[in-house]
Please model this.
Amino acid sequence: MSHIRIHSLEIYHPELSVDNSFYIDHFDRRGNDIRRLMKHMGRERRYIIDNEEENTLTMGIAAAEKVLARAGMTGADMDMIVFSTQVPETTFPANALMLHHAVGAPSHAMLLDSNANCAGMTVAVDHAARYMLTSPSVKRALVVGSDYNTLIANPEDAITFANYGDAAAAVILEQTEEETGFVDSIYFTDTVNRDKILYPPQGLASAVKGTSTSHVIQWLPFDGSVALPHTYEMVETLLTRHALTVHDIKAYCFSQLVLPNLQHFQEHFAVDPDRMIYVGDRFGYTGTSSPFIALHDALESGRVQRGDYVLFWTVGAGYQLIAMLFKY
Model:
């Protein structure tokens, strides 16, 4: 029986790292003290694009090139390419097609752009793994998640402008006969906040016709904690299906949107704090890639080894939750 494992993982971020002082000064000049907000969100630094050459696509290509080099492979070894983003450089052609060209993937490789907002890369890995399980000819897949978040951040809104970072992650999924890799996933959707986070804020038609009043993301206040009870239930259900407990999970690679979500989960289940992987203090909030940047940190620090269970969890605007279980 075939299984789908994570063969390799790499990340890319711009060179410029900006600390909180820049954003505190920026909002102080507007009469808005964001010091408590930055502490609450768990922010210290974030990487941002500050040039005309980089964007969502270039970061995704850079991450892909790094993961192929790490794996000792080339684009010609890929049978499937998925590009996850909520800030695509183009809507057509697909960003995956441009990535296909950049890495020299073969003509038989299937391509797909995927958008589940901040849940996107986790959803993309879930879908790619499930597709590979039913398609013996798809031996390897390259899944990239990349968001140029600061491009659409609102300089008058601390939630977006002071929290966002720019980054990309890339994973190679591979068929294996070893009993490892993708295990299962579970979803929960509630559309209660469907009008809170919008881009373009008045829709694409208004943006193209020039009738939109804003070109930056709309982020209206909402209670993000409403997702936590559902998260607890999802995780319990997912682990029970496979006769596991929360203490069998070596690393929790969650959305890096806000630090308290990780803290509440850790306290609720009495999980070892070291297993809750947090990188949002260094990377800011990177959107679709954030759970995989967390996994990259866990691997680089030695907190995750082959054979360890890893649980991913994240949330997409609106909102949609996904929890995904892997045996790394």
Notes: The chain has a mean pLDDT of 97. The domain at 3-179 is CATH 3.40.47.10 (Peroxisomal Thiolase; Chain A, domain 1). The chain has two domains: 3-179, 182-327. The two ends are 17 Å apart (CA to CA).
